[in-house]
Amino acid sequence: IGQVQDEGCCHSGYAIAPTSAMTDRSCIASNGTRNGIFSAYHALSCCPDCASPAALPCSGGDPLKIWEFWVVDGIASGDCLPYSLESSCNAQGCVEKCWAGMSVTVADTVVKGGRFYKVSSNLAYIQKEIFEHGPVQTSIQMFGDFVSFVGSDVYKHSTGGLLGQQHIKLIGWGHDDGLDLDYWIAINSFGEKWGDNGSFKIVSGSDHLGVETNVIAGLPKF
User: Which Gene Ontology BP annotations are present (predicted)?
Assistant: First the structure.
């Protein structure tokens, strides 16, 4: 649940955050019997409708489309197609063979999801969703101070211009007694040198930067 990925110079959080949540939820729903990782690389390179623009998957995309792709087409194993774009800004086209020397094809490792849905922006609803089924994916407005954020303080935007959207995974919540402030515990995809070893806390309860408006979740298929 706390695994941190590094999207590198490929703006692929729209694929990393959903596939990470899918991975966690599948493991939880199966009581640990499904412990494979869904491939963010497969999602961003093989879903033509997910990227925006479609020909440039490293320019960003729509996480809701990634969830739909999981349910309709399925997503391959991360063991078959590991994410390897930390130092590259270009994703290859959709490939049929696994990279990791596996004897199976990409298609052999594809698993479909059961369903996906938007979660109410109500704080209690989101907490209930996380408590019952595991981490959820959401999207926030990304400003300059977010990109440079380091430390364990609760993040609240104060400086820097708007740079776009960033897609993250919410894994829990808490309360800062010193600040009397509620927060979400989240996982970003900027690597472990960012934030608090790749995770961070963000103000909750006020839809700060859209964190509660844009929550998406899904359930695996059995």
Answer: proteolysis
**Which residue from 118, 138, 117 is spatially nearest to 184, judged by alpha carbons?**
138
Q: Which two tokens stand for residue 104?
A: 């199976």
Is residue 144 domain-resident? yes
Secondary structure (DSSP) of 17-73: HHHHHHHHHHHHHTTTS----B-HHHHHHH-TTTBSSTT-GGG-B-HHHHHHHHHHT
The per-residue pLDDT string of the chain (222 residues; one tens digit each, 9 = 90 and over) reads 889 999 998 999 999 999 999 999 999 999 999 999 999 999 999 998 999 877 788 899 999 999 999 999 999 999 999 998 766 677 778 989 998 778 899 999 999 999 999 999 999 999 999 999 999 999 999 999 999 999 999 999 999 999 999 999 999 999 999 999 999 999 999 999 999 999 999 999 999 999 999 999 999 998
Q: What are the tokens at 172?
A: 């829990």
What DSSP letter does each residue of 74-95 carry, written as one string? -B-BTTTS----TT-S------
Q: CB–CB of 188/202 below 8 Å?
A: no
Nearest to 77 by CA among 43, 20, 36: 36
Structural domains of the chain, count: 1
- Residue 4 covered by a domain: no
Global confidence as pTM: 0.96
* C-alpha Rg value of the chain to the nearest Å: 17
